[in-house]
Specification:
This protein has five helices and six strands, in the order ααββββαβααβ. With 179 residues, it is of the alpha/beta class. The chain has a domain of 119 residues: Nucleotidyltransferase, domain 5 (2-Layer Sandwich), CATH 3.30.420. The longest helix has 15 residues.
Length: 179
Amino acid sequence: MADIPDKKTAHSLEDHLLGMDPMHEHEDGEADHDHDHDDIGGKYDPTTSSLWLQDNITLLSVGIDIGSAGTQVIFSRVQLRRLSEELTSRYFVVDRETVYQSPVALTPYLDEERIDDQAIGRIIDSAYEAAGVHPDDVDTGAVILTGEALRRENAKAIADVLAEVGGEFVCAAAGHHMG
């Protein structure tokens, strides 16, 4: 009987214990054992599993700082990881990368009572454009007003609008004087 080159011979469980022919197929009824093969068709990437994706999250964050003298915007990519050993749903920051940091612009005031909301809008829009970021891309962040900017009568309105249009879960934060 001539050998068929494409057909592999039957093997037994002892063959596996000896490490023989780890890359093989079973024909129906040929094997004296049942098992799973370890070959998954290439290198396994754990970062594509749903469990890994649930425990490792990357967010794009924006920070908008409107201070007494200067206004600046920074975008960061923040990597969070849930520590499964503690059986908790808390995430911890394991890495942060600055994506873009705008130059500091002078905080624009209309007068002693008001911040120039149109000029602030242009500063913020220009930072988003320079970073190549659309507000829909932003996952989280904060708008912070401090010092003299916080004392202006339209400070809260500006913070609220910037938080609303800045992206998902962007919040306004400042001292207890913002009202």
